[in-house]
Amino acid sequence: MTFYVTKRLAESVIVLFVMSFAIYALMALMPGDPIDIMVQSDPHLTPADATRLKEIYGLDQPFSKRYANWFFSAVQGDFGYSRIHNRPTLEILAPRLTNTAWLMLASLLFSLIIALPIGIYSALHPYSKTDYLVNFLALGGISIPVFWLALMLIVVFSVWFGWLPAGGMKTVGESGLADSLRHMILPVVTLSIASIGSLTRYVRSAMMEVLRNDYIRTARAKGLSQSTIVFKHALRNAMIPVVTVIALSFGTLFSGALITETMFSYLGMGKLIYDSIMGNDFNMALVSLLFATALVLASNLLADLIYAWLDPRIHYR
């Protein structure tokens, strides 16, 4: 197991290196650079000033040399400064990453609390009226566009009833956990509705397949109770494909629920990446995308380790 984890970590480092080169190259291909934007926005800057600034910041050097300078600085922990925020990129990234973590974990937990029991019940009563209703609602949840759902939730709960704030993370002049939780309700519900449908269908499909296996019939022949068969024997094996879906969702949400965070003005990773790219904040965008890549790799490694915990037949040697 130790060798496997070490090997995966080494592979992740290689992937991050390749991704850093690819992202840096794509950033370099974008028209203009921060100095050109500065010159265009300030009529007092002359072409000579632009040339001097590019020389100071190394933007007049070849691409390979610029990337090498950035890479060796990044290895030493210096990821540069954000052009928009005028602060080190890691200082901006850390709180945004924390905000997205809370949003992601809350929505994922809420989705599992609802999807697991509904999917199990639907698998135990296949092709019943309840099963058809569950499938219909699950397909509806998958099909609803996230931006439209976010708008409808804002209109209903913020505009019509005034129960919840329409966006942001805190109310001006107020502080505390309760106020922060009120601002998280609508983003969490939006992300959860988009995930519950797919998770429910995966749980239902996996449970139905496991319940047809021979060892389940043997457990029933031995006189074990239905709850023991479902939760001890069937669910643990059915969770293996579900864990894969959760791991992929984990990486996607952590890399940024872009639409949701933008609709609710939630200061998370997705909105940070979007604002950085639109504002030509190359350092911030590059570091954010690299961290998103690292989190996707970490979630996939965690899923592989959970496989071995769920099924003792799976081992990594």
CATH architecture of the largest domain: Orthogonal Bundle
Q: Structural class of the secondary structure composition?
A: mainly alpha
**Alpha plus pi helix count:** 13
* N-to-C SSE string, H for helix and E for strand: HHHHHHHHHHHHH
- CATH domain fold name of the largest domain: MetI-like fold
Oligomer: single chain
CATH superfamily of the largest domain: MetI-like
Write down the domain tally.
2
Strand content: under 5%
Any idea what the radius of gyration is? 24 Å
Q: Largest sheet, if any?
A: none
Question: How does this structure look, described?
Answer:
The protein is mostly helical and 317 residues long. The chain is built from 13 helices and no strands. The chain has 2 domains: 14-75, no CATH class; 97-310, MetI-like fold (Orthogonal Bundle). It has helices at 2-29, 34-41, 47-57, 63-75, 89-124, 129-143, 146-160, 177-211, 214-221, 226-254, 258-263, 269-278, 282-310. It starts with a helix and ends in a 7-residue tail after the last helix.
Provide tags for this entry.
single chain; 317 residues; mainly alpha; MetI-like fold; 2 domains; 77% helix; 0% strand; globular
Summarize the structure.
This protein has 317 residues and is an all-alpha fold. Helices cover 77% and strands 0% of the residues.
Q: Secondary-structure map with pairings?
A:
Layout: H1 2-29, H2 34-41, H3 47-57, H4 63-75, H5 89-124, H6 129-143, H7 146-160, H8 177-211, H9 214-221, H10 226-254, H11 258-263, H12 269-278, H13 282-310
Helix pairs in contact: 1-13, 2-3, 5-8, 5-10, 5-13, 6-8, 7-8, 8-10, 9-10, 10-13, 12-13
